Structure formats: structure tokens, C-alpha cells
Amino acid sequence: RARDAIEFAANMGRPGYNTAVVGEPGSGRHFLARRLLEKRAATEAPPDDWCYVNNFEDSTRPRVLRLPAGRGAGLKADMHRFAAELGSTMSSAFEAEEYRRHIEQIQNELKAREETALRELGASSLKEGIALISTAQGFVFTAVKNSEPLAPEEFQKLPEEDQRAISEKIEKFGTTLQEVLRQFPVWRRETQNRLRDVMRNTLGLAVGHIIDEIKEKFRDLPEVIAFLDQVLSDVIDSGPQARDGKEEEGSTISGVPAPFQKYEINLLVDRDGQKCAPVVYEDNPSYQNLIGRIDQVGHFGLLVTNFTMIRAGSLHRANGGYLLVDGEKLLAQPFAYDSLKRALKSSTIRIESPGQLLAGISTSPLEPDTMPLHVKVVLFCGRQL
């Protein structure tokens, strides 16, 4: 009867059909249930790999990424290598002779444009006997006589009519100068935009072929391709700033500069090498051991975290297979039983902090995407429980 009941429950292909194994300690119930489930699991294909990746639109809400069994490890390795080498790739691109020559050309064009505008204004004013002179305080206009600036005492000796005419010309050209100088910030913004476009194009060429190589391995997975496109777009948009700030930010233990850590993969569940569905026994079914947790580390006196610190629980590892739990241990843990029921009822795993459950408000800076759940739970308990 026990064997038939377990096989009947395992054969139910819909959510909500789980199993309670009732018996006294020492009756062999764990061994029997596990042996039967492992025999059945051996006929089932291994479930998918699960990853968390950075959400480039909102870093506090990491996205979940699903890959066929065994493919996650390859993506993790590729993105780790990409992030670790990104700094040197960017430096090489920005130190290339062609890039430097292009930048210098754009800067020289701005300088020539400003100098031409001032030179043309100076030539125009000089035809009317007014010279444009550059001083430490800026540009000024002054009357000239015999190609030499007119001294103040000489200006005072001129007839009043001539003084008034010279003053009117200086005022007129002064107004024109102000109009020319107001154009300088506009031209400089245009130049900055051109420089930014050159940087973006350079980064696109330098990093794009690396992304294309990774895409080639995962061209059958649209979600991975979309993530890689977002990575490339973010590198192009924020790469120069991240490269400039990498020394201040420091590096992670893995050797990836902190600004580039957001391009890595948090492989939460790795099925690489597995040949069948998982059968997981959770000996200590605490809330965090079941649902997972978000770790934090100290940084300059503050606790910080990111998507790479999300840790899997036994529900994640058993997803697509079978989870075995002792009822007495489960009920002894705060929040564990209610959280397990909530996950089974919603068919999703939501990682929350225990403080969030207790206070009813978010106490974690991260709100990871929920993960779809498909699992059969086997609960071991005595008859009274």
C-alpha cells in the first residue's frame, strides 16, 4: 500500500498533489520513499538551470533567467571572462592610434571654429578702426591708429564727435562679440556629443565582437540573446565612466572590477552533470534553507548586497523534482511551514527576508523576480501530526 500510494502521488502530473508519509521512526519510511522516488526520477529528464542576472533598468529587482540543464555553467563562465577582461578591452580601444587621432581631430575642429569666429570678427572691426585684443581678463575692443592701439590720453585728445563715434563702434562690436561667445558653449556641447558618439562606436566595435561570440553559443535561447543585447547597450552607455571609476571602486574576490560585476551571472541552480530529476532531502528545513536568502557584506560601515549574493534554497534545488522534509522539523522553524504552503499554492518561489515577513515591510534592498516552481513534496510525520 505504501509503495502504491507513493507511485500514485508521483504520477499525478498536476500541482497540489503531494504526499504525507505516516509512520513511526525506525520504520524505514525514509529509505522506502527515497528509493522509490529516485527510481522514478531516473526516468525523468533533468530540469532547467536557473540564474539571476542584473536588471539594467532597476538594479534592485534582479531578473530570473532560465536555461536548459547544463547550459548555465557555460554562460556563467563566458560572462565572468567577459567582465574580467572588459577593463583591458576598453583601455586598448581608447588607446588605439585611430581613436586618439579621431578625438584629436574633433577637438581641433572646435578650436579652429572658435578661432575663426574671433578672427573674422577682429578683421571686420579692424576695417572700422577698432581692434579686438585678448587680455588676461578676456577680449576687449580698442581704437587703433597707424595699426597701434590708441592710448587713453590720446583718445581723450580726440574731438568729442570722434570719441562718440569710436565708443558707438566699440559698443556695437562688443554686442557682436557677446553673441559669438554665446555660441561657444553650444559648439562645445555639440563637440562633446560627437566625442561621446566616437566613444560609443569604439566601444561597440571593441566589445560587440566578444558579445557576438557568446551569442553564437546561445543563439537558440532568445532570453539569453536579449540579456546579452542589454549588456552590450549598458557597456556602450556607461562603459567609459565605469572604466574611469574602477580604481576607486576596487575589485571583487573573483578578480572582476566592481563596476563590471553587474555583467556576471549568478547561477543559482546548476544541473550540469545531472542525468535525471532531483530528489532533495532537507534535513534542516528553516525558512532560509527552504526559500533561499540574500546575503550582505560590510562596505565602509554599511551592509550592501547585489544580485550575485542571492543564494538558493532546497526548493530551488528540488524544482522540477522531489523535496523530502520531516514534518516535526518543519513546524519547529518560524515561517517555514507557511512559506512552503505559499510557494506550493502560488507555484512560485519568492525570496524574502524573515524581517520582511515579520514586519510586513521590505527590509532588503533587493526584490528578486519570482521563480516558477514545479515540485512534489514528501512530508514525513507521525500519525498524530
Question: How would you characterize the overall build of this protein?
Answer:
With 385 residues, the protein is α+β, with helices and mostly antiparallel strands. 52% of the residues lie in helices and 16% in strands. It is built from 12 helices and 16 strands. The chain has helices at residues 2-11, 29-41, 72-94, 97-126, 152-157, 160-217, 222-249, 287-291, 314-318, 327-331, 336-346, 354-359; strands spanning 19-22, 49-53, 63-67, 130-135, 138-145, 148-149, 266-269, 279-282, 293-294, 297-299, 302-304, 310-311, 322-326, 348-349, 371-372, 376-381. Strands 1-16-13-8 form a 4-stranded parallel beta sheet. The chain has a 3-stranded antiparallel beta sheet with strand order 3-2-7, with helices on one face. It has a 3-stranded antiparallel beta sheet with strand order 4-5-6. β10 (297-299) and β11 form a beta hairpin. α4 (97-126) runs antiparallel to α6. The longest helix has 58 residues, at 160-217. The chain is elongated. Mean pLDDT is 88; it is low at 245-250.
